[in-house]
Amino acid sequence: MTRPDDALSTLSVALGERSYPIHIGPGLLGDPQWLTPHLAGRQVMVVTNETVAPLYLERLKAGLPEELTVRELVLPDGEATKTLASVERIWDALLEAGFNRRCTLVALGGGVIGDMVGFAAACYQRGVAFIQVPTTLLSQVDSSVGGKTGVNHPRGKNMIGAFWQPRAVLIDTDTLSTLPPRELSAGLAEVIKYGLIRDANFLTWLEANMTALRGLEAAALTRAIERSCSLKAEIVAEDETEQGVRALLNLGHTFGHAIETHQGYGRWLHGEAVGTGMLMAAELSRRLGWLGAAEVRRTRALLEAAALPLEAPADMTADDFLSLMRLDKKNLDGRLRLILLEALGRACVHDGTPAERLAALLEDFPRR
Ligand SMILES: NC(=O)c1ccc[n+]([C@@H]2O[C@H](COP(=O)([O-])OP(=O)(O)OC[C@H]3O[C@@H](n4cnc5c(N)ncnc54)[C@H](O)[C@@H]3O)[C@@H](O)[C@H]2O)c1
Ligand SMILES: O=C(O)C(=O)C[C@@H](O)[C@H](O)[C@H](O)COP(=O)(O)O
Ligand SMILES: [Zn+2]
């Protein structure tokens, strides 16, 4: 039986009283039935950015009942704006509107907006409700789910933040029609991540469907979003605050965050840096004797098919990598903790990588 193209699906992030739904499908934005049940009270602040506002803000507002007090805040675009100063603008707007503890923040946009709005909600009057309405592939498959919120610091990525879960995640797959190809590829990096860490069958499916995904074919995109969200929801339900298994979602991120920070936030997209970082992790796993050369070639081919960069930045030395990687939040007691691959579809946390093996990888890994 084939699934109709306009079918909606709902997943759940199981966190007891704080459990929430992830609704996935086309046409969700303007339809009041999805947003309204999750509002905490009558005050709603929609936060978005200058790129997304002209595309989707009116559509979202059309789905809100008239009797609500609705305010909007349109922030500048870009990873470089993921700062405490931008979050202060959200708090200023809430105070200026006289919003109280029963207000709801709605994050309409990609992961930058989602992370900042979630953090603003976590702190405003010690915590108010928020809803994620992700509009990039990356935010639909990853950042909108799981409650990691926060901002960057000039010295390190996502260094300031809080765990704060949304009330709901509303994924309108129609929004992907306006996404630039480079952003689509960045999102595919996090999709590939799920296959690499936890689902070898999904990885095989991605290999067979990469052309359809890059061609924005609705059925393929929906399946990739559903599988990604389902894997993430499972992990978050098991380990909300990253005491154990959740760290696997960081595959490629120790290298990737170092690239993003070194290059100045925004020159490399998060997904691009993570894609290259995953290849670095796969190659290190091979050098430690866990992966075979053929498995690294498979990983590289899939990243290449997703049009992701396969080389590290030319101006980044091994020492640049190491000094930034030492700041990573996963490290404990001065030991670097890396997510490595024991097989395609199975990842582990490793804190015993010999320093000389890591240094050699960082020296040898191709640059462009
Ligand atoms: N909290 C988490 O668990 C988590 C997970 C992964 C990534 N992140 C964070 O997410 C951020 C990256 O998110 P991102 O890739 O969505 O980047 P982004 O938010 O910068 O969005 C990418 C670009 O696409 C534009 N855009 C958004 N929706 C669009 C649409 N439908 N059509 C056209 N353009 C659109 C945005 O304005 C922006 O220019 C990073 O800061 C990363 O650290 C967080
Ligand atoms: O949800 C998680 O857990 C992740 O690690 C998902 C990552 O894709 C995401 O980039 C996250 O923001 C990284 O978090 P950090 O704690 O390494 O900053
Ligand atoms: Zn990520």
From TrEMBL:
Coiled coil: none annotated. GO terms for molecular function: 3-dehydroquinate synthase activity. It is an enzyme of class 4 (lyase). Gene3D superfamilies: 3.40.50.1970, Dehydroquinate synthase-like - alpha domain (1.20.1090.10). Residues 187-331 form the 3-dehydroquinate synthase C-terminal domain. It is found in: Cytoplasm. It comes from the Bacteria. Zn(2+) binds at residues 190, 253, 270. Binds 1 divalent metal cation per subunit. Can use either Co(2+) or Zn(2+). InterPro entries: Dehydroquinate_synthase (IPR050071), DHQ_synth_AroB (IPR016037), DHQ_synth_fam (IPR030963), DHQS/DOIS_N (IPR030960), DHQS_C (IPR056179). Belongs to the sugar phosphate cyclases superfamily. Dehydroquinate synthase family. Catalyzes the conversion of 3-deoxy-D-arabino-heptulosonate 7-phosphate (DAHP) to dehydroquinate (DHQ). HAMAP family: DHQ_synthase. This is 3-dehydroquinate synthase. It comes from Halomonas koreensis.
